[in-house]
Amino acid sequence: MADVKSRIEKILNSLEEGSMLILYSGKSPVKSADETYNFTPNRNFYYFTDLDIENAYLVISKTESKVVEKLFIERNDPKLARWVGKKPSKEHCSKLSKIQEEDISFLDEFNGYIGDTLSRSNIKNVYLYLKSPHWENMTKEKQIAQEIQRLFPYVCIKDISTKIADLRTIKDEEEIENIKKAIEITKEGILNIIKNSKPGMYEYELEAYFDFSLRKNGVKDFAFKPIVASGPNSTILHYSANERKIQEGDLVLLDLGAQYNYYSGDISRTFPISRKFSPRQAEIYQIVLNTQKEVQSQAKPGLTLFELNEIAKKSLAESCKKIGLIKTDEELSKYYFHSVSHFLGLDTHDVGDKYMPLKPGMVITNEPGLYIEEEGIGVRIEDDLLITENGCENLSRAIPKEIEEIECIWSVS
């Protein structure tokens, strides 16, 4: 059970007096008619409440006189409950969120509470998570911000994203254990794919072995859409159609992740469908593996993700020049065009800036690659690293990646 009280205390310490924080849990979009997509909670709401519930609000007010935590949830509909089950009760939500049951209200009381609080309390700032990857994306938070500005023009609307990111990038022990468990399940799925692979199968057939491993372990969702990319598809960074028939001699690039308690694993492995790397495949694979080891050896507090990518680029370029693939460092971008790392946690591409110095407790990926389209060779090897006081710990070190280890997987029962 997450230490949500400690997290709330930390975010409150970052807010000035006279502030209100509003976080929304999200709501499943409608597919068509009465069918909706599967619900997944807004990760910021989940981080501070430990609640996996739809259409709810966490509201925290901080004034000179007191701090007030309120939770707004949907009322139970007895008729609807016979079809889809009961809505979470106040008692249930209180147990997980640590908010007193008397401070939990129903959703239809939300607007009145916000209006009354802003009218009667000395609230000068309202914080919402306003950061969005899409310009045209009108989120619920942006709608609330617009309405508050219309009705209470003297209140200052502020974005909370940076303050939350500062907290979420440093993982506590429970978060790290959740990530480790996600990686462990991912490992089982990857080995299940490789052991059952053979030429002539379709990519989606291999994906099914990963799906089974997750379901068997009680995992209902992926960390991200699985990538099972064979032959020419292995040179496409985020290929995920997974529909090609795999040919003798192909490399298969896997980029997969299980999700455990909403924490993600993110692992890439590349293997030969014919069970043995060709000399050329092994040459390219070893270059990527050596680069990955170099990045891991240098990952430590104080460095940034940007600097780690520069280390990866230098290593890849030097090796690619030695084998004649490129002549200048600048040509590397033809074969390596992404970054070597991102933060990992409640989101697969977790919150955090690539220019922020790494600190102990951060979890990052280490994923160099080479994508040679003209040869149909794509190699990516990815592990998940926990930054420690003096360096890093490879959380996915138990997943085979040496050439000899991979070629031996089929012989191990």
Description:
By secondary structure, the chain is of the alpha+beta class. The protein has two domains: 2-166, Creatinase/prolidase N-terminal domain (Creatine Amidinohydrolase, Chain A, domain 1, 3-Layer(aba) Sandwich); 169-406, Creatine Amidinohydrolase (Alpha-Beta Complex). 35% of the residues lie in helices and 18% in strands. It is built from twelve helices and 18 strands. The protein has helices spanning 4-13, 43-49, 78-84, 90-97, 110-120, 140-151, 161-168, 173-195, 203-216, 279-298, 305-322, 403-408; strands spanning 19-24, 30-32, 35-36, 57-62, 67-73, 104-106, 125-128, 156-159, 227-230, 251-256, 259-260, 263-264, 267-272, 363-366, 369-372, 377-380, 383-387, 392-394. Strands 6-5-4-1-7-8 form a six-stranded mixed sheet, sandwiched between helices. A three-stranded antiparallel sheet has the order 9-10-13, with helices on one face. A hairpin with a 4-residue loop joins strand 15 and strand 16. Helix 8 (173-195) packs across helix 9 (203-216) and helix 10 packs antiparallel against helix 11. The longest helix is centred in the middle third of the chain and has 23 residues, at 173-195. It is globular. It starts with a helix and ends in a 5-residue tail after the last helix.
Please name the defining characteristics of this protein.
Creatine Amidinohydrolase, Chain A, domain 1, 18% strand, 413 residues, alpha+beta, three-stranded antiparallel sheet, six-stranded mixed sheet, Creatine Amidinohydrolase
